[in-house]
Amino acid sequence: MMEDYQFRQAMGKFATGVTVITTEVEEEVYGMTANAFMSVSLDPKLVVISIGEKAQMLERIKKSQKFAVNILAADQKELSMIFAGQIEEGKEVPFSRLGDYPVIEGAAAQITCEVSSEHVEGDHTLFIGRVTNIHLTEANPLIFYSGRYRSLEEEEVSAI
Ligand code: FAD
């Protein structure tokens, strides 16, 4: 019998970046840390995010029908922890704007999307996002695996 912890451990072996998904509902800005993010299609440009049924972000994106994926930079671990509810609330977060969307300043990449479709799968909802705008910086990304934050330098095996 496959246990939950075994599934979690196996998924944790898949090293990822860390994103903060941002959206805006009735002029209030919200963020949520997520690593379930993937590029789906180049033409048209589509991405997917996966939001748990218990996350408040679920209703927020259903309402706004738009979101931004902010790929965190290596020095933004604290932001990841804030938006995962792992450290105390009440911190002022420096949001900026990309067009009509709230985004995280200093992120390695900011990708704004309109919801193209949503699919409920088990206890998560997959949102397919049609990419409307992108902003890139030179920053290295923050890395996450086996339940820990890492930096790319530490993990570098060899230069290509
Ligand atoms: P809330 O509980 O409302 O918000 C989360 C936190 O963000 C709160 O502490 C809140 O104070 C803070 N916050 C929100 N908006 C603001 C603001 N404007 N200014 C300052 N602080 C603010 N869950 C998934 O569903 N999918 C994933 O892919 C996923 N990946 C994860 C990856 C990692 C590395 C981690 C650590 C967690 C991941 N989670 C994921 C879990 C998810 O981040 C947490 O369950 C989160 O707390 C859910 O937030 P919420 O939408 O319920 O919103």
From TrEMBL:
Q: Please name the GO terms that the record assigns under molecular function.
A: FMN binding; monooxygenase activity; riboflavin reductase (NADPH) activity
Q: Which Pfam families match?
A: Flavin_Reduct
- Which intervals hold domain Flavin reductase like? 11-151
Query: What Gene3D superfamilies would the database entry show?
Result: Electron Transport, Fmn-binding Protein, Chain A
Q: Which domain of life is it from?
A: Bacteria
> InterPro entries, alphabetically?
Flavin_Rdtase-like_dom, NADH-dep_flavin_reductase, Split_barrel_FMN-bd
Keywords linked to the UniProt accession? Monooxygenase, Oxidoreductase
Membrane-crossing residue ranges in chain numbering? none
Protein name as catalogued: Nitrilotriacetate monooxygenase component B
